[in-house]
Amino acid sequence: MHRAPLLDLIQIYAAAHPGEAETVAKFREFIGRCPDCFERSLREGHITGSAWVVDRQGKRVLLTHHRKLNIWVQLGGHADGNPDIEAVALQEAKEESGLGQLRAEPGIFDMDIHLIPARKDEPAHYHYDIRFVVRHDGDGDFVVSEESHDLAWIEANDLEKVTTEESMIRMQRKWLNSR
């Protein structure tokens, strides 16, 4: 089953984050019920992959000022049928930042379900977002893509200066507590 590797990663995540049992249960139910969960065409929602991109020292995080959502968030995007969500997160980080020398750390870093508002011919739907820590071992020079108003390296300690988004602050806490 093409969903089994992701469910295995979620099982490991669930054991490490027992306080997130409700979110984990929602992911499991969605993935189990929807064989096409990796497809953007699934109107109720779909699996997405995101990257918590950190610099070599782990002190800064690369965020995008997302063009469609108009908020500062992590890099990431649609799986478009690819069940290897870690690879999706890496690819999205490369495409949205122009950065090379990226490598994902093992295991899921965070999981979040959030509503994407309706726009044009697309109804409101959910992103079941699987997030990975991605290290950048290069010089940090990025290129702003069409998907962003801007990109910025933000000190992990200073994330509240650009966002109050609950899932972003949760990732900040996880990151700072892991170092």
**Name of the CATH superfamily:** Nucleoside Triphosphate Pyrophosphohydrolase
Distance between the termini: 36 Å
Q: Which stretches are poorly predicted, pLDDT < 50 over at least 5 residues?
A: none
CATH architecture: Alpha-Beta Complex
Strand content: 25-35%
CATH topology: Nucleoside Triphosphate Pyrophosphohydrolase
Gross morphology is: globular
Q: How helical, in percent, are the residues?
A: 25-40%
Q: What is the average per-residue confidence, as pLDDT, rounded to a whole number? A: 94
Please count the beta strands (DSSP E, at least 2 residues each). 8
Secondary-structure class: alpha+beta
Counted by DSSP, the helix tally is 4
Order of helices and strands: HHEEEEHEEEEH
Q: What number of domains?
A: 1
Structure, described:
The chain is an alpha+beta fold and 179 residues long. It has a single domain, classed as Alpha-Beta Complex (Nucleoside Triphosphate Pyrophosphohydrolase). The protein contains four helices and eight strands. Strands 1, 2, 3, 4, 5, 6, 7 and 8 form an eight-stranded mixed sheet that branches. The chain is globular and about 40 Å long. The termini are far apart.
